[in-house]
Amino acid sequence: MNSNFNGIDRRKLLLxxxxxxxxxxxxxxxxxPAVSQQSRExxxxxxxxxxxxGKVAIVTGAARGIGRACAVALAREGCDVMALDIAKQxxxxxxxxxxxxxxxxxxxxxxxLGRRSITMQADVRDLxxxxxxxxxxxxxxxxxxxxxxxxxxxxxxxxxxxxxxxxWDDVIDVNLSGVARTMRAVxxxxxxxxxxxxxxxxxTNSRFGSPGSPxxxxxxxxxxxxxxxxxxxxxxxxxxxxxxxxTGVRTMMTQNDEARRWANPENPTQENLEKALxxxxxxxxxxxxxxxxxxxxxxxxxxESAAITGEAMDVAAGANVRWNS
Length: 325
What we know:
alpha/beta; two-stranded antiparallel sheet; seven-stranded parallel β-sheet; globular; 9 helices; Rossmann fold
């Protein structure tokens, strides 16, 4: 699939957000040096302010990656956190999903910050499980102030017509329907309290189309519409609903052999994977660190964002200059 973007011939658009976001280019950028990436990761840990002290948050997909980073960032700012994850494999997903021991590590990191933590294995595809999670958080913490629907998966395929039903259904059910079920589980409690923040980890794939990930793209565009719709429905109850749209982030969803083959089938190397993303981001960077997404997400949880709802903030290393919506 060929496309022409700003006069440069590209072979393929890639996934954004928790997955890839980029354009495979013919060697137009050097791979970001490891020392530079490590330096940025260190800089992505701001000094805590404790301005969310006394708040309670639930984060889905919290066993690792962006979800863990969000859970830990919220705890650092003073939140008690329920860290929720399916923590088992979904058969249609070809890269390893999180394990119970990774969820336990999230729990350890939250508690190391002096905050209370609950971990729970639950599937966002099951509304009863999500309602049980919210009920448990209320029972043990007394309330839920912040909900972070983050759980997401991706399947890498040749095209829509070649994918299996499971490769379509599972992604839509986790990434889109799972976000809706997570919202449905917590909104009644937030309505009763007349306050709440729902902050979805979405993707820059809600801003453009790309081949090879039709279910992922459809789910992320759907989440963007869902955020804007639900924001109007709950605004009078003092509940805000916003999203963060990352470019490619260094997580297991992007750092695997399936992603490397998808980025460059002829030469599926890590170097070419990094080049793919660097050619898309305007800043001279490849994959962002999960903590950078978590830090951006904190903005929507802070008092200053009380009048912001139905918004989607791109955390995209400048890739977002390419679209105007």
